[in-house]
Specification:
Strand content of chain A: 15-25%
Largest interface: A-D, 45 and 45 residues
Structural class of chain A: alpha/beta
Distance between the termini of chain A: 41 Å
Strand order of the largest sheet of chain A: 13-12-11-10-6-9-8-7-14
Number of helices of chain A: 12
Number of domains of chain A: 2
CATH class of the largest domain in chain A: Alpha Beta
Shape of chain A: globular
Number of strands of chain A: 14
Largest sheet of chain A: 9 strands, mixed
CATH architecture of the largest domain in chain A: 2-Layer Sandwich
Helix content of chain A: 25-40%
Order of helices and strands of chain A: EHEHHEHEHEHEHHHEEEEEEEHHHE
Oligomer: homotetramer
């Protein structure tokens, strides 16, 4: 149960790149980090427009001399201060993640980075290795992954309630970009430009979310090979896809599918995860994250509700308000940031974190980039099966 | 609106093969055929056990001398009678469909056959040609296809409400055979034996249902190529699959997916059809067939209900009881049989049927067999893309 | 399981008053009665317009000389025939139910009557007594009462799974008459005219349906007192109500509420029954009759599906097509008519019916009329508590 | 849109009574108040156990000398400080609300109080008058009332989309106290003891929530008379009720019902509000607060989603993260606290607040207490209609 009691000794000195005024993604980072005083916002380079960024930072309580025109200035100056920031959040367009994260790590900072961590597996592994060498933490904001219902799903699979996992059905398919909305909305435009978005649009932007959830819920699954077909229904988006289907064969015989789309007209998120085992299935839907459907073959399906005593302890641990009351995305993010803080505290103290501490880490960042890379390789070869590289 | 007024001049003289005592599929055929007096049950070879079949036929009101020990006897004797049956329903295991149907057509009878019509496209086309040559009707019991909500879906697509169709997402994935239940249940056993079931299990048994629905709703789509991956999670079922995923590219750029399974543990049918267009989507679920979800991008989703005035005329035509009252599978089947009767009456009179009369006909039977054949060809080659043959 | 095997020896000779061409309620009576050959339609006085009635009867296969211009003629002539009808269905406006039923009983016929059976408890008891004296059956078409999910609800309560029943929450509240639609639709006009409709509109037309379901599910409950508030939101309907709420105290402490409405704008039926016990609740919704929600306190709610092995035997007995396939209102009606036939057969043979045979009988008819009478008495006194008379 | 930009000039100096370690209600107050830096937690009397309270306050960052053993000490000391708290949150058992609020107002503090504000209308009006005389704000934490979907509901009614409101159907009926759980759980025990809970249990604890929502959505409705029946299904709770139904007649002819329960076995909250107008209805369910059902008679129902462009501006104003992402109860509370802060700032500056600023204020507090008082008066007189006093 969470009642605001902090599980770490002190708040971490925190800085932020991106997430300026009007950015909702910036807001969710701050809401999560500041929620239970795990982080103190001490520095910021919040906006490409330095004056606007400075004004907003002031509103947020950042001291004037720790507001920076850009991330290079911030990392340099903060690294030089005795009381400089310990950890930096990177909430900028995809093409900048790699270099900012690398610079921060080299400056001895922990890094919390929007996904994708970077564009290539090689880069991702480089960052992972760099973090390891420096004893620093990388957190990647797979923000759906700390829902209590995801913990319950993971616990159910671990308990053997499903039997051996056979099928992994994933989707994240909205309809908001059915029309070429990017033509009039610069906030979307960069997402369909390979220069800023990288080698994919919806595969990297959406599909890696449920993919990571499947890794959390079924940690033993290993992809053996996959095939991917991707399409650009709004033709001007090519070579980036706005719809894709990936099939996956796992070691040991399980089979997976991933449907991701930005042209699923009329749909909201429809991010869903269904795990099918020999004996039972679980199904999760991000738009209704307080419920988890649990279906045992031969029995009536059950609707599990967050916050209830019948859940596994891991699923109850992060309850913030009793069952029946809806929690939402902000709570999942806040729990994620709490876990980042605990991992960082352990690293700061030179000790291994609690083995039960699970969060989207450098390995998760590598896994996402790697998966997209394999998908693109398959798709660009005509939708053929490729061994998982 | 249907109030029991028959749209044909008289009831057709009808015989049945299979569907003996205790068969629910036999019951739904009879309920549908007899519902509004379009058919009169005049003859039957209902059971492999002739005595049991005769007793049941007597219960059903069939005259003693028109109860037959097997279909060969029935076709021979009935064909020889002046008042012999005009139309025969074939509700036997899959491996017998072809020869019974062929014999009946050759004897001048119309044929209503369970799906699959047969095992190969060549056979299917042979039956189709034979029916055409003799001026006889073949109906294939894709029994989900005459729901009013399916008519509404078809009308919405035809009206352009969705814009150009981009995605066709199909599934029929139950969990009833998650365990090797066939070991103790002979009624299931034949379904996983290639000798009786043909070249596939769930692809032919389940997936062709939503596939046909997609053909009804989007009649202009043509598959260009497809790829299929199939698995036998209960190993003893190999080479027949108990789970499969098929991807389809259509002429003109639309993309389709089909998931079918008998090992989707805990699920009931979950037969769903989602059609995504440029502007809107529709979604249909066979377990809740009185509703159709209609989602226009940028507007709140709407839940359309059967029987309501706001529907298209084609969807209102077959209303049997006002909106709000749930109709079910028996009504879809009854409407299908009504359409069979109208087509048969037209054939009997040597005229073309009403061009608006839509029913699962010989072409639908060919299409299903062909699709399975292509899927199996792809799957057996390792899940590669194959041009649609 | 129902496969069409008739549970009675022979079909009953049946006649019908009302339910002419275009009547959907007439159609559901016929679909139900004829479904599995429990009844043979031998005579009819189907329409106030005798010629139209005769033409429709001919379409339905009634012999010309057994088509009658009115019910008096039919009862007289059929009673005089050796092969005259044994049972009559009354599907006419409410104000005629009493006299037709009485005349039919006096002529020695069994009666199946639309609800309400009549307008006063005194009349209802008179009919009940008359039927008893003559050894005839009265069936009242509470057509929702033979759903398999209702059987399951009844079995769950009987099993003690809910513990002692505390609350009975009933509603049947549609929105189809939010506007004064009767001004232009004569088929609705009589329902809001006390001369034809009796002392109430929605209380008698709608609320008695879920009320009867509650009697079926909780046969031990006895109303001790009630209070009712009724309103005429479309003023021209006064004194008949188009919305009403009734509160009920039962012997032993249980408490009930009934909301009924024809002005619940935008709603379809929303006929729902929720029974709350000490330990668990069940909830049923007529628009989704294949599901029953079962909620044990402290456990996740379960969605029970019709046709499944985990249900009680009583709920499985009337399965017509396996679980997952949706049945609808026509099946509930068909099962009701089957039970009428079995009760009539027993009466014809002078024996008591199977004690397990449950159907909406004369007592159900009395109960409904009585309840409305009490509601109206309370409402017309200003919504005060009245002892249940 | 909310991105963390504070709408007030500065954070308010804030203190808290109650809400100690392990209290989730204390946590939601703090999460809401601190969310976007509208409040600074400067003082606390968090626990009856002074040492435990002091330790927790220290964890929360309250300075040692501003941690108090009880509220009297806190109000006295803080009122004497130049930098003393300006506003106090009262999160203690019901029986203390009146005296703490009164003392705080007399000390010149603004008050944010858990509901019920007090036990009698007379007391409530006294507090309201006191606040007015001192120019102080009273906020009452009807924490469901600042959901965006509630704003949309209010805007739809105001726009005339529903036509004249006819019916108000309210419920808040959980099952968590089906058994006498208070026997072993002191945190529940006080709720069923009149000394601490006041004259009612579920009427005051639960029903006033949807009641206030109905006041927000339909601000023009005035109750003319009501009747209430209440029951104690767990007998030891008498005279306090664990279930109650209230009927309400409004001026102008609208009719309302309220069902509230703690013995609705198996149910979560089932807090629902349905407003029925001449032309359309809206329905809201607190467990799924991101959706609002909007049903226009004669059209298919629509599911409105939070955060979407098709909503009214008032409903979009408080969006924190785009549509599709679930917000939850914490966001509704945070918005409520933001509005408290804005009202307090206006009061501090001696100006009228923005006329569009809507929050649960002293009048809301009075309204809730008054409603319970009327319900209890009716119930204790045997469930009779009473003019609304």
């Amino acid at each position: 149960m969470i009642d605001g009691t902090r599980k770490t000794i002190r708040a971490l000195r925190w800085g932020m790149v991106g997430g300026g005024r009007g950015s909702q993604i910036g807001y969710i980072h701050r809401s999560a980090a500041l929620r239970d005083r795990y982080f103190d916002l001490k520095a910021g380079a919040l906006d490409l427009d330095a004056a606007r960024g400075a004004a907003f930072a002031a509103d947020l309580g950042v001291e004037r001399d720790r507001t920076y025109p850009d991330w290079r200035a911030m990392i340099a100056a903060e690294a030089a201060r005795e009381d400089g920031i310990e950890v930096i959040t990177v909430a900028t367009p995809n093409n900048t993640h790699y270099e900012i994260s690398k610079a921060a790590l080299q400056a001895g900072m922990h890094v919390i980075c929007e996904k994708p961590l970077c564009f290539t597996t090689a880069e991702a592994k480089e960052l992972q290795a760099l973090a390891k060498a420096r004893g620093r933490v990388i957190g990647v904001t797979y923000g759906y992954s700390c829902y209590q219902t995801i913990e319950e799903a993971r616990a159910l699979v671990a308990s053997g309630a499903l039997g051996k996992v056979r099928l992994v059905n994933l989707q994240f398919a909205h309809g908001f970009h059915s029309a070429p909305v990017e033509e009039e909305n610069p906030a979307i435009k960069w997402r369909v430009d390979p220069k800023f978005a990288g080698p994919s649009y919806v595969l990297g932007d959406l599909a890696t979310h449920p993919l990571y959830l499947s890794e959390v819920i079924c940690p033993d699954l290993r992809i053996r090979r996959l095939m991917c077909a991707r399409q650009s229904f709004v033709a001007s988006r090519a070579p980036l896809e706005d719809n894709a289907v990936t099939l996956m064969e796992y070691e040991g015989g399980a089979f997976g599918t991933v449907w991701t789309s930005a042209v699923n007209a009329g749909a909201m998120h429809s991010q869903k995860v269904r795990i099918v085992g020999e004996k039972a299935s679980i199904e999760w839907w991000d738009e209704f994250p307080n419920q988890l459907r649990y279906e045992v073959q031969g029995e009536p399906p059950r609707i599990l509700d967050r916050g209830m005593d019948y859940l596994n302890p891991a699923a109850r641990a992060d309850d913030r308000i009793g069952g029946g009351h809806p929690e939402g995305l902000f709570e999942s993010w806040a729990t994620m940031y709490e876990r980042f803080a605990r991992a960082i505290e352990a690293a700061n103290e030179g000790r291994a974190p609690d083995p039960a501490l699970r969060y989207p880490d450098a390995a998760a960042g590598v896994a996402g980039v790697r998966w997209v890379e394999n998908c693109v390789r398959s798709a660009d070869a005509g939708g053929i099966w490729v061994d998982y590289a």
